[in-house]
Amino acid sequence: MDNSSFNKSGGIVMKSIILFAVLILLGQTLFATTHIVSLDGTGDFTVIQDGIDAASNGDTVLVYPGTYYENINYNGKKHNGCQSLPHHTNRFIC
After folding, report:
1. Which of 43, 51, 67, 72 is in the most buried spot, having the most CB atoms within 10 Å?
2. Distance between terminal CA atoms of the chain?
3. pTM here?
4. Could you state, in order of their start, the residue ranges of all structural domains in the chain?
5. pLDDT by residue (tens digit) across 23-73?
6. 64, 91 Cβ separation under 8 angstroms
């Protein structure tokens, strides 16, 4: 095998590895889910903890306005805390 065919096959392998890594990262983003919590029952859940329990890493739990009397346990899941949504003074992502 001459040096030029080794470089070509090595380049193909490297491109395949990069493509595989990109597809894995995109897959995690594309399959993320938003779980909606609202006290009035119009969302997926009425309790924040139920939304967190249903969520996987990378998912979003969107909490609608209201007073929720509960303790939150993230159960070891990655989270960014709660953030208010832009242009919505009383909607939070937890």
Report:
1. 51
2. 57
3. 0.59
4. 1-31, 33-94
5. 565 555 567 788 999 999 999 999 999 999 998 877 888 888 888 999 988
6. yes
